[in-house]
């Protein structure tokens, strides 16, 4: 299933591929009406609406221009703890376990609302609680995020790098498509910051993926400049 799913997004499916139009998004979000449009899209996303691809891309890539943007949030520790609580059930303390896991995932999604792994775990948690509405909302959110990200590039080569706005999203894509990482390295390609991820043998027969982390790179540079 994951192999077929990934092939759909790996340049053989129906998604149109194009780089994010950051300049256009930035220009839009300099206006009051643009901000209102964005905030309404964000609410629609939280409510579980399935967004048209253009709106999903605006939502995801426009997030870098909001005050909430934090691209290096260390989500892994919280994710590991949530996984342990969700998938190692204690029949006596099960409700307590799920409550703590929910709080951990909420902590991640408050800072990084597009974290696919957190959304997947939230869907799993909601399913165990028999909350079908919560499950559907989580599925819709994941669909919006993965469509936005994978419409930016196939990841086959630097020119088709997958554009992401937060470092955890590298691991999110690997998790979502069950692709095992071997190693990674950062490189400059033209005026873009690229991460090349070498993969271990996998059922999708994908050897490597390229990610464009330019927005993250710029954010870190700005932070470093401000610190000086």
Key features of this structure:
about 230 residues, about 55% helix, alpha+beta, 4 strands, single chain, four-stranded mixed sheet
Question: Could you characterize what this model shows?
Answer:
This protein has one domain. It has ten helices and four strands. By secondary structure, the protein is α+β, with helices and mostly antiparallel strands. The N and C termini lie far apart (about 50 Å). The mean pLDDT is about 90. A four-stranded mixed β-sheet has the order 1-4-3-2, with helices on one face. It is globular. Helix 3 crosses helix 4, helix 5 runs antiparallel to helix 6 and helix 5 runs parallel beside helix 7. Strand 3 and strand 4 form a beta hairpin.
Arrangement of strands in the largest sheet? 1-4-3-2
Radius of gyration (Å): 18 Å
Q: How is the biggest beta sheet arranged?
A: 4 strands, mixed
Q: Per DSSP, what share of the residues sits in E-state strands of 2 or more residues?
A: 5-15%
Number of helices: 10
Oligomer: single chain
């Amino acid at each position: 299933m994951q192999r077929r799913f990934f092939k759909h997004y790996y340049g053989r499916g129906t998604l149109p591929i194009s780089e994010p139009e950051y300049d256009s998004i930035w220009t839009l979000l300099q206006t009051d009406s643009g901000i209102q449009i964005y905030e309404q899209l964000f609410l629609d996303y939280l409510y579980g609406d399935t967004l048209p691809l253009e709106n999903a891309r605006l939502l995801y890539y426009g997030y870098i221009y909001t005050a909430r943007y934090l691209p290096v949030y260390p989500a892994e520790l919280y994710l590991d703890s949530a996984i342990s609580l969700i998938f190692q059930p204690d029949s006596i303390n099960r409700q307590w376990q799920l409550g703590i896991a929910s709080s951990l995932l909420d902590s991640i999604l408050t800072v990084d609302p597009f974290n696919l792994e957190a959304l997947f775990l939230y869907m799993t948690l909601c399913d165990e609680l028999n909350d079908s509405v919560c499950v559907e909302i989580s599925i819709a959110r994941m669909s919006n995020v993965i469509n936005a990200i994978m419409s930016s590039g196939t990841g086959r080569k630097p020119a088709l790098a997958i554009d992401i706005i937060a470092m955890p999203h590298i691991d999110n894509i690997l998790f979502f498509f069950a692709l095992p990482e071997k190693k990674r390295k950062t490189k400059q390609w033209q005026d873009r910051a690229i991460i090349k991820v070498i993969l271990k043998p996998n059922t999708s027969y994908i050897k490597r993926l390229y990610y464009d982390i330019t927005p993250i790179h710029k954010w870190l540079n700005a932070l470093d400049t401000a610190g000086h």
